[in-house]
Amino acid sequence: DETLESIIGKDPLPFIAPADRPTFLEHLAQARSKIARGEIYLQSRSGKLIPVQVALSGLEIAGNQSVCLVATDLTEYKLNIEMRREAEAVAQAKDDFIAMLSHELRNPLSRVLIASGDCESDTALAPELRGIFRMIRENIESEARLIDDLLDHTRIRRGKLHVQLEAIDLHQVLNQVIQTMTPDFRSRKLQFITELKAERHNVRGDAGRLTQVFLNLLKNALKFTAPSGTVHLRSRNQGKRIQIEITDTGIGIEPDVIGKIFDPFAQGKQRGDHKFGGLGLGLAISKALVELHEASITAFSNGKGKGATFTVELATVAATPKQSETPPAFIPREEQSRRILLVDDHEATLQTLSRILRRWGYGVETAICVKEALDVAAKKPFDLLISDVGLPDGSGLDIMREVKERYGLRGIALSGYGTEEDIRQSRDAGFGEHLIKPISFTALRTAIQRTVAA
Q1: Which residues contact 303 (CB under 8 A, 6 or more apart)?
Q2: Do 215 and 179 contact (CB within 8 A), yes or no?
Q3: β-strand pairing of 230-238 with 36-43
Q4: Per-residue model confidence (pLDDT) at position 143
Q5: pTM for the whole structure
């Protein structure tokens, strides 16, 4: 087969693929007055097509008009583009699979979580039985966090993980994290010491994402520290920055792996070949979230069996942030007459959720599809819509658009999908809150109170 070098000095036309010869002749004509460029294919004797970039320009040699042709082989360039496209297609297919898998897992998990939470809060049941349901609920919530970690890791890889920065009180965030984690430390018989001594603790941050970071770090300390051990959380100022330090007396980190502690899926190699469970994504996600805050996170350990220390450092801001109100733990009397339209196509979930909402003091009407929901909404006045997004005859988004336009209703979406695009579509339809399954009762109650108060 011919190479580009083998046709130097020859008439190129016979080597050009027949389909590209008219294009080449056009470039040749243009070359007499200007430089002409384009892509064509050469064809070898065996029929192999070779993509080339051609540049033609007119020039005068010894009084004769000639054309200079420069051809560049694009075979490797085209191959690299194709390989990159295939890799992107594979990555997109994998991400789509993870999103679909998470949705398929979330729906049954949500049903089990709602049912177990309902039984756990039923005072008519024996304490031992309620304890079993609490154990079921806690394990389902752990499974849900694994799904969240996978989705967050996907967003990080594709550059789609975002934070919404505003002035917040970091001590307020930490106090909420402490309240959440304290029962877990008590159940494991670990000493949990907190010292929030930083005088300047206002930062620009995303309260929800920073909560995720510190929950990850404390759960990590809890996992790798044996009963009777100690976990210490401190805050202090270093110049114009605030340092949050979490120290444990756990199994420690060996020197040869501490540099890889924030790598995705690294936990098994670093801490005992999955002896302690988990996917090994928590620290990688925490590092990505901290860096989105233009902050830093570091790990230190004196070695195996000597515990570990994780330090997060953020810049402080002078402005005093607006203190957010903590949702009340009870339903105010003026909310007890609120009427809720609840929509879900799974009958058992619908009945369990409606029973819980009535127990909280709300009036509830139910529907299992878009048509039934719109019919019910036309007959009775409601204050709030709580709807599953995926319904057999349409979408909860369709219901929200209709009842918002007709009756001015506010709404809370329940969905197994939780990407930024899913949440955006939910907001655009008129939902004020988007709860990702499996939903906790605390998250649902807080969302209701926030939506009603909006």
Answers
A1: 252, 253, 254, 255
A2: no
A3: unpaired
A4: 76
A5: 0.57
